[in-house]
Structures are given as C-alpha cells and as structure tokens.
Amino acid sequence: MAYGTKIAKGDAYKRAAIKRRHIRIRKKVNGTAERPRLVVTRSNRHIVAQVIDDIKGHTLASASTLDTSIRGEGEKSAQAGKVGALVAERAKAAGVEAVVFDRGGNQYAGRIAALADAAREAGLKF
C-alpha cells in the first residue's frame, strides 16, 4: 500500500452508507421534462447542483461553488445558499418551474438544507 492512501474504517463505512442511501433514493426519484431532477453533489470543499431531465439525459441548468460569482465568499453554508438561488434562477430561465429533489445520499441538513431552502425561496417548487 502506498503512503497516505489508507482509509480509516469510519470513513469507509460513512462513504458506503452514503452510497447505499443514494442508490435507495435513485430507485424512487426520477426526473422528466415537466419535472426534472435537482441533483445535489457535496464534497468537503464544494457543492454542485444540477437540474437534469433523466429521459433525455440532458442537464438543463447547473451551479456550483466553483462559479466565479460564488467562489470564496463566506462560509460553506452561505455558499450553498447562493448555489441554490443561482441554480433556481438558471432553471427558471430554462423554463423549469418544478423539480424533484435528489439529495444524493447526503442527510438533509446543513449545506444540503441551505441549498434547498434558497432554491425554494428563489421560486423553484419541490
């Protein structure tokens, strides 16, 4: 094993639990052209939100903390809120009014909840 590649048991179990939750959620959540799926992907540093039409396999709108308008402003929860507002604005510009929320196996708390609340306040229905 190379140096620095060992994963602690706790981290491996946590990632496995997130993956199990994500698979369980994806069985139930599906996006259509009328009501696409709002997918949230979270890492330790960044958060990404995409509005996806699963039937066509197209991304209709997206936003992330890597965008220059959001990058490096405030704490991570505040950045997640800005991402939520920005993805809602871009989705509405693309003609999307309502979405199905896919939290990506993450717990609905903290940054995920901040993003969802900001998207709702910006006019996206879910």
UniProtKB/TrEMBL annotation:
Gene3D superfamilies: 3.30.420.100
Keyword hit for Transmembrane helix: no
A cellular component term, taken from the record's GO annotations: ribosome
Superkingdom field: Bacteria
Coiled coil regions in record: none
InterPro entries reported in the protein's UniProt record: Ribosomal_L18, Ribosomal_uL18_bac-type, Ribosomal_uL18_bac/plant/anim
Keyword field contains 4Fe-4S: no
Keyword set, alphabetical order: Ribonucleoprotein, Ribosomal protein, RNA-binding, rRNA-binding
Protein function: This is one of the proteins that bind and probably mediate the attachment of the 5S RNA into the large ribosomal subunit, where it forms part of the central protuberance.
Subunit structure and binding partners: Part of the 50S ribosomal subunit; part of the 5S rRNA/L5/L18/L25 subcomplex. Contacts the 5S and 23S rRNAs.
Family per similarity comment: Belongs to the universal ribosomal protein uL18 family.
Name of the protein this chain belongs to: Large ribosomal subunit protein uL18
